[in-house]
Specification:
Length: about 475
């Protein structure tokens, strides 16, 4: 009934289009959602838009199966409850609504509620007139339902249960329908890739049929040796890697922002004169492409943001420094393979043996290659074990912490905007926590001579059993 599709939206007569998710209803495209995604396209990712589209689709499906409910607040409240409970009858196991929703985790349900809250907040502000009786309004049936719900929310602050006093300050404004709050627990074991297995992964894991996978080794070195996020190497250009002037044996790697990063220095105009611009301009004019953050197919690669080292790039800070030397050695070997193929793009990592040869290498392909490399050396692939690509970033952060690097420098090396962001990467594991307790106990015994040893400790007046 409702289908999420990839849409090309032309906003004017220039021929420029934007690719965003769109929700198809029996009455056509849901225009309010399309407008919302366009409104947020400058500061939100395609992944976020797809999640919003999923949330709106679920709400419309629920609305359609409950047409008799006219109270918008109760409708949304019941919808939120069904996210947590599912829609199956507990006794019979049947679902007369046909929704067939299994119970969702509190985190997922909370995200859906937040997506809808923000969407209807925006819609109530931008299109309050849509719910009025206006024959010139040409929206489809589901457009009108969405607009009417937003209008009711705007008019009396009942939709999503806003609590508004006559002169309430902003701090007192909240939503009645909220996600469940889980009990607070300590973070689990940090999912860091096991350091003692990394060289084996690089040398033996990324070797198949007697050939080394230099491409996979290079990407993994960027993650493990420089702490990049797994999607960031897929924005790397060939021009972005040079021998480091301070140490010619080590690679100087700068991964530029996919849109705002500076175009390569060898870019020339039609008259052969040097040309300056950002990477979005460069891709469009030289290759007819858009940044990989803007495409909705397997070529997509995200960019989380964080802090940049210059306008606008993130530099690799190799730790340990030998990783930068390994990278440069492997890079030269990899370039020999790249030189044999034609490319219609500037990206460094390409398809070598699969079609389209010379095409952009994709994140999903690397995830499969990394999993296969782990399995070749006997490692199970699991996020909890740190054996997914993201585990290398955790390993990098822990390595910096264990080496006694100052927190301000760890923030810089990991390209975090806030010092608090590094905590998830540098938290101690259970083994380290227990070792700290044992060391503290030993210091206590040394400092206080009368402190009883653990082996002789016995409660006063308690005799040992025979």
């Amino acid at each position: 009934m409702f289908v999420t599709v990839k849409a090309r939206v032309y906003a004017d007569a220039t021929g420029v289009y934007t690719e965003i998710p769109a929700l198809l209803t029996p009455a056509g495209v849901l225009e309010p959602l399309l407008d919302y995604c366009l409104y947020r396209s400058h500061d939100r990712s395609l992944t976020w838009m797809s999640k919003v589209a999923r949330s709106v689709r679920m709400f419309l499906e629920y609305l359609q199966t409950n047409p008799a409910e006219r109270d918008t607040y109760r409708l949304f409240q019941n919808f939120a409850q069904r996210l947590y409970t599912g829609t199956f009858d507990r006794e019979t196991g049947l679902d007369s609504s046909g929704l067939c929703w299994a119970p969702r985790s509190p985190q997922d349900a909370g995200h859906i509620i937040t997506h809808l809250t923000d969407f209807f907040d925006w819609l109530g502000e931008m299109r309050p007139e849509a719910a009025k009786v206006n024959p010139r309004y040409a929206g489809g049936a589901f457009d009108r339902k969405a607009d009417e719900a937003a209008y009711q929310y705007r008019r009396n602050k009942a939709f999503l249960g806003h609590i508004w006093a006559a002169n309430a300050p902003p701090a007192e404004v909240g939503h009645r329908v909220r996600s469940q709050r889980l009990p607070k627990v300590e973070k689990g074991e940090p999912p860091a890739f096991p350091e003692e297995r990394f060289e084996e992964l690089l040398g033996k894991g990324f070797r198949a049929a007697g050939r080394q996978d230099y491409r996979g080794m290079l990407i993994t070195l960027l993650l493990h040796g420089a702490g990049f996020r797994e999607s960031e190497p897929f924005h790397l250009y060939i021009h972005d890697v040079l021998p480091d002037p301070a140490n010619p044996r080590q690679a100087l790697v700068r991964i530029h922002h996919p849109f705002h990063g500076a175009a390569p220095v060898d870019w020339r105009d039609q008259r052969g004169r040097p040309r300056k611009g950002n990477r979005a301009e460069y891709l469009a004019q030289q290759f007819g492409l858009v940044p990989r953050t803007e495409v909705m197919d397997s070529r997509h690669a995200g960019w989380k943001g964080g802090m940049h080292d210059g306008p606008y790039y993130k530099q690799a800070y190799w730790f340990v420094p030998e990783y930068g030397e390994w990278f440069l050695q492997l890079w030269h070997r990899y370039l020999e393979q790249v030189a044999r193929l034609d490319r219609d793009h500037p990206f460094a990592f390409i398809n070598l043996n699969r079609e389209p040869a010379g095409g952009m290498y994709c994140l999903s392909q690397y995830n499969k290659a990394h999993a296969a490399a782990c399995e070749r050396i006997g490692l199970s692939v699991s996020k909890a074990l740190g054996t997914t690509p993201h585990g290398h970033r955790h390993a990098y952060g822990r390595r910096l912490k264990n080496a006694g690097i100052d927190k301000a420098l760890i923030r810089r090396f990991m390209h975090h905007a806030s010092p608090e962001s590094q905590e998830v990467y540098t938290q101690p594991n259970t083994r380290e926590a227990l070792a700290a307790l044992e060391a503290a106990a030993q210091r206590l015994r040394t400092t206080h001579a009368r402190a009883p040893s653990a082996s002789s400790l016995l409660l006063p007046g308690v005799e040992p059993n025979d």
